[in-house]
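Need Conjugative transposon protein TraK's 3D structure for a figure. Predict it.
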Amino acid sequence: MFTHLKNIETAFQHIKRFSYLLISGCILISGFALYKSYQFASATNNHVYILANGKALEAFAADRKDNIPVEARDHIRMFHHYFFTLDPDEKVIDANIGKALYLADESARNQYNGLKEKSYYNNLISGNISQQIQVDSIQLDMNQYPYYFKCYAIQKLTRSTSNVNKMLITQGYLRNVSRSDNNPHGFLIERWETLANRDTTLSP
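Structure prediction for Conjugative transposon protein TraK:
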């Protein structure tokens, strides 16, 4: 009888040790699975897929600080594009200027109002003049905030009888604002002014 009880106790000890090992193994496997799942989720969050023309293109997420110079230059370029790309059509002018004014403060609106008072836009319409801009370079100082910039561009005016090229130099500052549909880069141009806007057209 005692031998039988001893065998039962020994079996119970074996079962208990086996249960501990099994529980420990389950905990280790569960912890490893959770770790790998978190690792996979983190890696997935850093990938962005963009659908373009029916094709899925992979992009990579990055901190904004890594892209500030790129986004800032594009913001400046887009502002100048909208402000200076004009056709002899009042609706086109209003649409482009409206987009530009979302990207800058009252300094841009003041320049727009000044040009409007001088009948600049009416002259474009009456003279059937198209105006385009080509940004050559943008100097950006990231060592101070708001970020100072200077923009160098060529302004092209196309008339029915002639073409005029002007060298345009502007400067201003960029500060951070909330992103929106009208301001996707999250910058606002401040204290914007024109330093030079002179004719560079060569005489025939």
